[in-house]
Specification:
This protein is of the alpha/beta class and 249 residues long. It has eight helices and twelve strands. It has one domain (2-247): Metallo-dependent phosphatases (Purple Acid Phosphatase, chain A, domain 2, 4-Layer Sandwich), CATH 3.60.21.10. The chain has helices at 13-25, 44-51, 61-67, 75-89, 95-106, 140-148, 224-232, 239-247, and strands at residues 2-6, 30-33, 56-57, 111-114, 117-120, 153-156, 163-166, 170-172, 180-182, 188-191, 205-211, 214-220. Helix 3 packs across helix 4 and helix 7 (224-232) runs antiparallel to helix 8. It is globular. The structure holds fe (ii) ion (FE2). The site of fe (ii) ion (FE2) has 7 residues, from loops.
Length: 249
């Protein structure tokens, strides 16, 4: 089975549509989303409507924050979350649509296990909130603890920085891997990067295709100036949220 695994759409409809076109041209069987469909970006409702057609969408911290009390967010992120909540509740949408989207978020699972595969937003230890950054390879206790909780392979998002951690305590970026990683004997945590707000200095959307034990990292261009302009036009969304799309940070 050929699967697309994507994460951190963050209400960026232009990026999501570009990625979905790329996915379609690759004839995948199903789409798995690792959370944060909403938060930061200007089109939360349209992105949720797309996500409803995916096979699985894991709960992200921003999805959770939009429904419940947001905790641990920066002030800009929190303001974006309240704006997002306002969009979800807005009477411009028929009640049926509002309920459908709320129910969809409420039913998002915190993780998904399939034999040797685990799918989470953050980490195996704390699926909703824990970040695993490339520099964490130097935090031996953390990395050993995380790999202790993984059967073989864990797909995750949340940091918006794509790449592969292995139980040899190393991290390799997609470029270092030539955009291809073959799942083998070593346990691995694969970060699929972010569709809607990449932070590895490459502004193109990031996602992966998993096919027959091979992970292919894909980058997709989208009209990011259009998304950035939408953000600049919404006072409750910090201009920085648009600027960072242009720079991929
Ligand atoms: Fe995120």
């Amino acid at each position: 089975m050929k699967r697309a695994i994507l994460s951190d759409i963050h209400g960026n409809l232009e990026a999501l549509e570009a990625v979905l076109r790329d996915i379609e041209s690759n004839h995948v069987d199903e789409i798995i989303c690792l959370g944060d469909v909403i938060g930061y970006g200007p089109d939360p409702c349209a992105c949720l409507d797309h996500a409803m057609s995916f096979s699985v969408t894991i709960l992200g911290n921003h999805d959770n924050g939009a429904l419940f009390d947001p905790n641990g967010f920066s002030s800009g992120a929190e303001r974006a979350i309240f704006w997002t909540r306002h969009q979800l509740e807005s009477p411009v949408w028929p009640e049926e649509d509002r309920m459908r989207r709320m129910d969809f978020i409420c039913e998002m699972p915190r993780c998904r296990r399939e034999e040797e595969f685990l799918f989470v937003h953050g980490s195996a230890r704390n699926p909703l909130n824990e970040y695993v950054f490339p520099d964490d390879v130097y935090n031996v206790r953390k990395i050993e603890k995380l790999f202790g909780m993984i059967e073989r392979y864990c797909f995750q998002g949340h940091t918006h920085v794509p790449g592969v951690f292995t139980d040899r305590k190393d991290f390799k970026s997609p470029a270092q891997l030539n955009y291809r990683y073959e799942l083998g004997e070593h346990k691995a945590m694969i970060n699929v990067g972010s569709v809607g707000q990449p932070r590895d200095s490459d502004p193109r959307s990031s996602y992966v295709i998993l096919d027959d034990g091979v992970v292919e990292f894909r980058r997709v261009e989208y009209p990011l100036q259009k998304t950035a302009q939408k953000i600049y036009d919404i006072p409750d969304l910090d201009n920085f949220l648009g600027e960072r799309l242009v720079e991929g940070r």
